[in-house]
Every structure is written in C-alpha cells, then in structure tokens.
C-alpha cells in the first residue's frame, strides 16, 4: 500500500477496549507529568503492553498496518487523556508507517527497527528542526553533517524540538553530507551511541511532558547501512514531506481532543458550581447554554473537517493545501473553544487546581506545528491563484 493511499477503517474493538481502559488512567497521571515536565513512561509502557506502539507496522512485521484514519482516531482519543503521550504516539505511528513504505531503506535496517519496536516498544521519531534553520518545511539545507573519514561515517549537529527525546531509541535525522555537492536526506541514528547527548532545553508553557529537548550529535559514528536516504536535493520526494497531509490531519485531531476534554470539564463544572447568590447551578443560566452551543459548534466543525480530510485521503486525492487548511482551522477552533471556556468562568479557569488551565496551555501549542498558519493560508492562496 502506498503511503498516500490509506484505508478508511475505524480502530478495532480490541483497540477501542484498550483505549477505554487506558485513557482515564492517562488523565489521572497527566497533572503530575505536566508539573514535572517528564515523559509519562508508564503511559508508554501501558501502550506497549496493550500492543498499541507497533500498529503502523505491516502485518508481516508484527503490526496491523493502520492508516491515517485509525491513527487520527487513536491519537485523538489518547489526547483526551494526555496530549503529550498522544503526540509521542502520533510521531511513532507516522514515522514507523513512513519507514514501512519508504524507498532507500534496506530490508535489513527496516527489520532491525521494526524488531525493536515489537520486542522492546522502541520509539522512533524524525529529528529535523535546527536552531539556525528552523523548520525544514520553510526550505533550506540542514547544518547537521555526515562526513567520511576512511571507512568511518560520522554525524555532527543538533536538533531542537525533538519530541520524546529522552524516551526515543531511534532518530531519523535530516542531514547533509560534507561533499562538494552535498547529498541530503535521512540518516538513522541509534540514540544510545557514544557522542549523542540531550540538552534539556524544552521549557515551554504547554505540552511540557513531551520533553522536546535538543539532541546533540558530536562525531557520532554510524554504520554505512544507516545512511538510508541521502540524495541530491530535489532528486526524489522526501518521505517526511510526502507525509505532510497525514501529519496535518493527525495533529488537528490531537488538539481537537484537548478541546473536547476541556469542554467536558466545563460541563461538569457548570453543573456542580452553585453560587450562594444564585441558589442554582451555573448550568441553569441561559448565557452558559449559549456558550456551550458556541463551543459545540466549533467542535462539530472540527469533526466535519477531519472526516472530510480523511475521506479525501482514503480516495487517494492528494490535498496538501486542504490538509494544511484543515490543520489550521481545527487547531484555531480548538483554541477558540477552550478560550471561550476560560473567559466564561474567570479565575477558576486559570487556577492550577483545575485542569482547564493545563488544557488551555496545551491547546495553544497547536499553532506551532507544521504547517503553521501563515504557511497553510499562503499555500492555499497560491494554489487558488495559479
């Protein structure tokens, strides 16, 4: 199956049952991990034991070959419990799915990675963003460099915003060679090799427990077989770019999940909160009826947009511009929905004693994921005017 031809399936009953059991547990743990900024390793272990980390692998490699529809639904559900775990899981699915379908990877290397995922629950993520370059989606060549010294291959550089950093086993590192005409592409790096270190640089206000720290490579020696996809710039489609529409829809589904959790908390709060001067729950006031209607309208729009994007992908219709607009609109709607809840109830919404404060910080992070708003809008506008 081509990476851009997904199946339009829902998760199986067994997966649904596992999520029904795990998501409430993740929600209970989320506040403590948010405060500590540490990755919820027990959540990841639970996902491994439930067989959920390897789902994007092909059937003959120990997975079930799930496509973007199932990925979006699973990630959206996990995000209602802990969006930081959901983001690490999303990257696991997108990257292992990309490896399964990528050209340039030898079966030996592919099998090595997949065996570690099935056996150990090993985590994989692409490491692409750099301090000087920013996101590669905006163009440019990486500063991270692979050079040859005799029969040795050494990689040096640094990657920022490395989601799941301290829990990752494998990094798919966007790199260039030091040749006169550099080749560019993916290099597989086991992150336990000498010369790999992590700088704890992730100090963001939201999604704290993704531990998206900086990973530094200092003359890390890698086997030649791990130079999986180095080619002249523009010579072939970068698999990470080819997954852009999948990534956009999945990220939208994740932050929609955050907004739905915030909405449900607000409903409970309005039903329980009974001010002395009112003598009845806040849920009895017409202005809160209208507020919930506004929030539900935003979330209904999100659901329709995500389903539209999934249907196009299932039909094999490449729509990167549409996918970018879906991600932009869904994340903005999610932010607006949580923002309305915060504005409506005032100080309690911003207290760390209530989860709405955390949901608001987390949902704002939807804007920083590729494609960012200006890119999504500009790309769609250029296409319309072509």
Automatic annotation (TrEMBL):
<dbReference type="Pfam" id="PF02770">
    <property type="entry name" value="Acyl-CoA_dh_M"/>
</dbReference>
<dbReference type="InterPro" id="IPR037069">
    <property type="entry name" value="AcylCoA_DH/ox_N_sf"/>
</dbReference>
<dbReference type="Pfam" id="PF08028">
    <property type="entry name" value="Acyl-CoA_dh_2"/>
</dbReference>
<keyword id="KW-0285">Flavoprotein</keyword>
<dbReference type="GO" id="GO:0016627">
    <property type="term" value="F:oxidoreductase activity, acting on the CH-CH group of donors"/>
</dbReference>
<dbReference type="InterPro" id="IPR036250">
    <property type="entry name" value="AcylCo_DH-like_C"/>
</dbReference>
<dbReference type="InterPro" id="IPR009100">
    <property type="entry name" value="AcylCoA_DH/oxidase_NM_dom_sf"/>
</dbReference>
<dbReference type="InterPro" id="IPR052547">
    <property type="entry name" value="Mito_Isobutyryl-CoADH"/>
</dbReference>
<feature type="domain" description="Acyl-CoA oxidase/dehydrogenase middle">
    <location>
        <begin position="130"/>
        <end position="220"/>
    </location>
</feature>
<dbReference type="InterPro" id="IPR006091">
    <property type="entry name" value="Acyl-CoA_Oxase/DH_mid-dom"/>
</dbReference>
<dbReference type="InterPro" id="IPR046373">
    <property type="entry name" value="Acyl-CoA_Oxase/DH_mid-dom_sf"/>
</dbReference>
<protein>
    <submittedName>
        <fullName>Acyl-CoA dehydrogenase</fullName>
    </submittedName>
</protein>
<feature type="domain" description="Acyl-CoA dehydrogenase C-terminal">
    <location>
        <begin position="250"/>
        <end position="370"/>
    </location>
</feature>
<keyword id="KW-0560">Oxidoreductase</keyword>
<dbReference type="InterPro" id="IPR013107">
    <property type="entry name" value="Acyl-CoA_DH_C"/>
</dbReference>
<dbReference type="GO" id="GO:0050660">
    <property type="term" value="F:flavin adenine dinucleotide binding"/>
</dbReference>
